Amino acid sequence: MAGGSHSQGVEEKTASRGQSEVNKRLKYISLAVLVVQNASLILSIRYVRTLPGDRFFTTSAVVMAEVLKVLTCLLIILLQKRLNVKETVLLLLDSIVFQYKDTLKLAVPSLIYTLQNNLQYIAISNLPAATFQVTYQLKILTTALFSVLMLRKSLSRVQWISLVLLFAGVAIVQVQQEGNKEASVSDSSSQNYMVGLVAVVISCLSSGFAGVYFEKILKGSSASVWIRNVQLGIFGTVLGLLGMWWNDGAAIAERGFLFGYTDMVWCVIFNQAFGGLLVAMVVKYADNILKGFATSFSIIVSTVTSIYLFGFHVDLLFTAGAGLVIGAVYMYSLPKAPGGGSSSPSSSSASSASSASQRKDGDVEPFLPKTQGGDASPPPAIHITD
Question: Which end of the chain has fewer CB within 10 Å, C or N?
Answer without folding.
Answer: N
